[in-house]
Design brief:
With 455 residues, the protein is α/β, with parallel strands linked by helices. It is built from 19 helices and eight strands. It has helices at residues 18-27, 52-69, 80-93, 108-113, 121-125, 137-142, 166-171, 182-192, 214-223, 240-256, 266-274, 287-291, 332-342, 345-354, 366-370, 372-378, 382-391, 415-430, 436-452; strands spanning 44-49, 73-78, 100-104, 152-158, 160-165, 280-284, 302-306, 319-325.
Amino acid sequence: MAPPRPRHGPRRRLLRTGAAAAALALLSGCAGAGGTSFGGGDALNVLMVNNPQMVELQKLTAKHFTKETGIKVHFTVLPENDVRDKVSQDFSNQAGQYDIATISNFELPFFAKNGWLHELDGYVAEDPGFDQDDILAPLRESLTAEDGKLYAQPFYGESSFLMYRKDVFEEEGLTMPEKPTWQEVAELAERTDGSRAGMKGICLRGLPGWGEVIAPLTTVVNTMGGTWFTEDWEPRLTSPEFKKATKFYVDLVRAHGERGAPQSGYAECLNNMTQGKSAMWYDATAGAGSLEASGSPVKGKIGYVPAPVEQTKSSGWLYTWAWGLQKASIKSDDAWKFISWASSKEYEELVGATSGWSNVPAGKRASTYANPEYRAEAGAFADVTEEAISSADPKNPGTQPRPTAGIQFVGVPEFTDLGTRVAQEISAAIAGRQSVDAALATSQKLAEKVAEEYR
């Protein structure tokens, strides 16, 4: 996926938001610290999000990667919002504190444009065993920058879908449609709410953060006919369509969603679903691996269907957590060896052998979905996941043209700040501290400031 361009006006500086400026100011005293190896000795320093697949990687690295290569790895593992902030700080300053970090297809175009990432084409060319052609095309495209160079490798790819308790639905005499609408989901959430002690009808993210509550909410906005901005950069957060979608989401999670919804993100909803506290969960396809993992109390009890829709044929997002190599790293050769190993077919086979194939960080390689061992264990969600990724359309995710590519985000650097601040307003509405109308009125003003930069 080529990085988005404003359709009107000149290219603007990539770093302009208050959040980015604050981050750079905080790091101004460390400008001479390139190549720092705070993990100790010659260890690679890897910064990554605390999703289950990354935690599994951390456990396997010393016994396998370090044993085979002699390269030690020091991990810093943080929640999603925290890791985004720290990656932006360290890479923007090129301090070299972290050699490798998990970045997404959202950040990559801007990081590459600013010269913060080491291009990987040369390493790929010299490492034919990596098999770059096996990486699913949507992910290859999303990790290739405007200059045509590759700047990251996916650890896993994901879209979004609806997960539900098959056994609970059967007990309640309910049937999940093969392709549900959001209205159908709301009705099913009402009917399953309280069906078992402590069980709510659905889990939806309410945690502030552009990568938390805003991600699923924006897919609802898209399929209900809304958009953050028109093709001509007119903010539309107070439009009838955006209001309808936001009210629907807020009302649904308040009426039938998890307890503590304003503090619930991906990790919390995964925990709720695993512990039997939710009858349904709309979120990342990556969550299925944990639900079906060996030892999961809900293994075999979950059904998977496409992301709910209203006015569009599909509504799942496209996202990847990928390994980015900081340009300032003085250990780039060793860093590539780690990236190559962590994104390889061999690593997936290792996870399959040690933790079960359902726990493999999938969604990135065509060979995974052709692997009979993977299909035997992950068959419950493999096809739905692959279809969700392949049907995602970042350039046309809604019902009208957009100024940038992006499904669950707006593809401009300012969105990290805008999305987070809007998320705070939405989360406050979920908490009952203000109305949706008030939240969106404030959000519209925030969006207008961004729009001014691109008109």
